[in-house]
Specification:
The complex is a heterodimer of chains A (about 180) and B (about 150). With about 180 residues, chain A is of the alpha/beta class. Chain A is about 35% helix and about 15% strand. Chain A contains 5 helices and 7 strands; from the N terminus they run αβββββαβαααβ. In chain A, strand 4 (about 70) and strand 5 (about 75) form a beta hairpin. The termini of chain A are far apart. By secondary structure, chain B is an alpha/beta fold. Helices cover about 30% and strands about 20% of the residues of chain B. A 5-stranded mixed sheet of chain B has the order 6-5-4-7-8, with helices on one face. Classes of the chains: A alpha/beta (about 180), B alpha/beta (about 150). The interface between A and B is large, with 57 and 54 residues.
Chain lengths: ~180, ~150
């Protein structure tokens, strides 16, 4: 006996799915939780300015003016491709070169910008300095740079924490970002 | 002539029965990887690129500040402004804003709040330094300059 099988029309299914898809495309965003992470110093009032003498040799000075031009250690500079290696050499000097740092704990990379410096330029330089530090950490921990950063992002996992602590041992992330000067605005 | 007729007899329909499946797959992909827009951006956002990115794991601990030139230049002028949630705030309001954000968190986690600064690449350091000073005063010292991944160099 032939029985008519009930059928649901599904020709419009694709249309409905497209409609839903378009709705989600329009109302959602792809989350971006990535960026350059830094820790700010304690509030200005908490520790009154005392003259801490930092030896000239332990400072790697990076200055950026309001037209985004650079002074590295007092010298004007255009090409910044070799900068990362210079910073690495500076941090890991350990007293060999008398004009460079005593040891990684004392070495400080100092940033000074102007109020008119663009954010893009600042990020570009900060990226290079952080690249130098992360390269050193990764090498000390025996992993690649990307692996070290991934481990540092989630310290709740014990193996990540071990990598992080091994890499950071004896080398603090000494990046100092000074208050900007007020030449251009 | 007969020969030609035979050739035109080829079936030309593209099978569409799997189309809903394909579209649903796309739909699920977008549903999983994206999140709902919470704020509508009122400032220009061209985020700079960098290579040494760190990822934030705990999204509940992140508070976003957007900085850039207002999109409605006629109404708000060309000077970069700070947007928090859905409104523009002044630098002096940042401490209050941070405290509001901290109040949303559990007491034990309040010190771990991370401020994600989404800054347009043309914004100036002066304004951002002012924000940083206020954040230091508000004791929210974990900061993330939001950037995009730069794949050219690595």
């Amino acid at each position: 006996m032939a029985r008519s099988t009930p059928e649901i029309p599904n020709a419009s299914m694709a249309d409905i799915a497209f409609l839903l898809l378009t709705f989600f495309l329009v109302t959602t965003t792809i989350p971006n939780n990535k960026g350059l992470s830094i820790a700010l110093p304690p509030p200005p009032e908490a520790n009154p300015p005392e003259d801490v003498k930092i030896q000239e040799r332990n400072m790697f000075k990076i200055q950026i003016n309001s037209s985004d031009a650079l002074l590295i250690e007092g010298e004007p500079r255009e090409d910044i491709r070799t900068l990362k290696d210079e910073i690495k050499a500076f941090i890991l000097n350990n007293g060999k070169d008398p004009s460079s740092s005593d040891n990684p704990e004392k070495a400080i990379v100092s940033f000074k910008t102007d109020r008119g410096t663009s954010h893009k330029r600042f990020i570009e330089l900060l990226d290079i300095v952080q690249a130098a530090y992360y390269d050193i950490y990764a090498e000390q921990a025996g992993v690649s740079n990307a692996e070290f950063r991934a481990a540092a992002s989630d310290l709740s996992i014990p193996s990540n924490k071990a990598i992080y602590e091994k890499g950071r041992a004896g080398i603090p992330l000494n990046i100092s970002i000074a208050d900007p000067t007020k030449v251009g605005n | 002539m007969a020969k030609f007729k035979k050739k035109t007899n080829v079936k030309q329909d593209i099978p569409t029965s799997s189309m809903p499946d394909v579209v649903f797959m796309l739909l699920f992909f977008f549903m999983v990887t994206t999140e709902m827009r919470k704020t509508s951006l009122e400032v220009k956002q061209q985020i700079p690129k960098a290579t040494q990115l760190r990822k934030l794991m705990r999204k509940s601990l992140v508070a976003n500040l957007y900085v850039g030139e207002p999109t409605k230049v006629q109404q708000y002028g060309k000077e970069p402004k700070i947007q928090a949630d859905d409104l523009f705030i002044d630098t002096k309001d940042i401490i209050r804003w941070v405290n509001e954000q901290k109040a949303k968190l559990d007491e034990v986690e309040r010190d771990q709040i991370t401020v994600s600064l989404k800054v347009d690449k043309d914004a100036k350091r002066g304004l951002i330094a002012d924000i940083e000073t206020e954040l230091r005063k508000a004791n929210a010292r974990k900061l993330l300059y939001s950037t995009l991944e730069d794949n050219d160099q690595n």
